[in-house]
Amino acid sequence: MAGTYSRRSFLKQMGTLGATIALGGALSSCGSSGGSANTPSTGGSATPIASSPPSGGSASGTVNFFARGDEAIFKVFHRLRDEFQKREPNIQVQIEEVPGDFYQKFQLKLASGTPPDCLFECDCTITSSIRAGALEPLDSFIANDARFDKSDYLPIAWYTSEYEGKTYGLPYDGGSMAMFYNKDLFKQAGIPPLSPEEPITWDQLLEYGRKLTLDRNGKHPGEAGFDPRRIKQYAFDPQASWVPWLWVWGNGGEVITKDGKVPLDEPAAAEGLQFVADLGTKHYISPSPQFQQQGQISFLFEWDVAPFPKGKVRVSTGWYSPLSMTAAARNKEAAWKWISFCCSEEGQRIVAELGQSVPPLKKLANSQVFLNPKVPPEHKQVFLDQLDQSILRTPGDKMGKYFGGYVVEFRDIFNPAWDAVLRGDKQAADAMKEVRPKLENLLKTGKVS
Known about the structure:
Blueprint: H1 7-12, E1 17-24, E2 61-68, H2 71-87, E3 91-98, H3 102-111, E4 118-120, H4 126-131, H5 139-143, E5 162-163, E6 166-167, E7 170-182, H6 183-188, H7 202-212, E8 214-215, E9 231-237, H8 245-250, H9 267-281, E10 303-306, E11 316-325, H10 332-343, H11 345-353, H12 362-365, H13 368-371, H14 381-385, E12 392-393, H15 407-422, H16 428-445
Parallel strand pairs: 1-9, 2-3, 2-4, 11-12
Antiparallel strand pairs: 1-7, 4-11, 5-6, 7-10, 7-11, 8-9
Helix pairs in contact: 10-11, 15-16
InterPro entries: Bact_solute-bd_prot1 (IPR050490), SBP (IPR006059), TAT_signal (IPR006311)
Pfam families: SBP_bac_1
Organism: Thermobaculum terrenum (strain ATCC BAA-798 / CCMEE 7001 / YNP1)
């Protein structure tokens, strides 16, 4: 991507949208990694190897780096490599570019005994990799590197990388959820620009959504003759297929409780899920699997960001995906040099200047490197405000483990039931009642039933 808060990432969602929920900081590839519940086979070469801190000598040799993403993301890694090798001329970084389902390809690498030395992991797959013994704990490396003090980073930056008291990745890419919106279309519909500080309500979302959505005859939802099968312009893309949790918390519900319960079928949670599904199947202001189509694409417009809409409770969410070292890395010292450079202040300054994500380092996140209002969007402070600990939620935060430690498996169980709700085939309360026992069994036993 040209940047997670870029025009390209905004447009990529669904065509001409009056407003869209999209990631501000976290890469789109984090939400569509294609990971499955099949954890990596460690094979003979992926057996965990004890960590050893970097020595005082200079590292050298080749580092094989497994990079997921698209061309724009790969371009950032190539820029980082160019700068890194000026500083470490004795280390050659070989970047293997992996578009599409990176996790399946990573599993194949592990099974064949040819794992990379390090990789751009995903918040959605890292716990599966850890449990399989595929990743190297980095705590001793961090402790012996003066560049890394966890308190220098945003509190959420390390959350997905820490498991059972150990750290398996360095924060590289991520951020918070925010509402991207097309200011030109808002103006045409007579809607004032959104506040960068105060979120709109769910009722306002529906009100604005009806004004912004148009069928190919220029009709709005609710007007006589409106045709939901022939939409020219949707108002809102809630990214509901893979980030539905905000609507649960926003309605006062819970995803995972402290004791491992998954009360998604209880009224507050189910009603929140039903609300976001109804945006497509009932109110017709957002894309829905029920109507397989896309609006027209407009590439020239002014845009900005605003806080996530507020329901009964104001909430936000966010995450960071790390760079990790494999347990079977053949050149751990050189691999550490590479991933630590990318995640250090020096490397993250490059990443931030290229517009890839919200810097995980507080110093950079609160500097003009990131907040420069001359570089769209104007109100990037929104992304930082959405990371406020008083409103920030992540699935499993009450347990102290991201998704209870089973991200891929949780989604594999949840998604088919949720898809039925998004299609309008089932009500959220019924679908979640069916899936709840399976999710709770997963968190209790670690097994998919």
